[in-house]
Design goal:
This protein is α+β, with helices and mostly antiparallel strands. It contains two helices and four strands; from the N terminus they run βαβββα.
């Protein structure tokens, strides 16, 4: 990552959710909050048609019950290529 976007601390992840409506973005963030400890989300407009972008940080070292079993059973992804909008 660049100096303007430093990496989060070990065990944490910065998450960006972009959705057509604020309600859809909030639903996704709600699921993340049920699985992980998270900071308060920050909301930004993402276009002229009511789209929303939400940012939050999650602490993956403090997982909730349902996430714990899922995380233990999942295998890490080896596809670390950046997405098209991250280049």
């Amino acid at each position: 990552m660049s100096a303007e976007h430093p990496l989060p601390p070990v065990g944490h992840a910065d998450v960006r959710v972009v959705a057509a409506t604020p309600e859809v973005a909030r639903r996704v963030v709600e699921v993340l909050r049920r699985c992980f400890a998270a900071t308060e989300q920050r909301s930004y407009p993402a276009g002229a048609e009511g789209a929303t972008r939400l940012h939050l940080s999650v602490d993956t070292t403090r997982t909730a019950g349902p996430a714990r079993s899922w995380l233990a059973a999942s295998e890490p992804s080896f596809d670390e290529r950046p997405q098209a909008d991250e280049l």
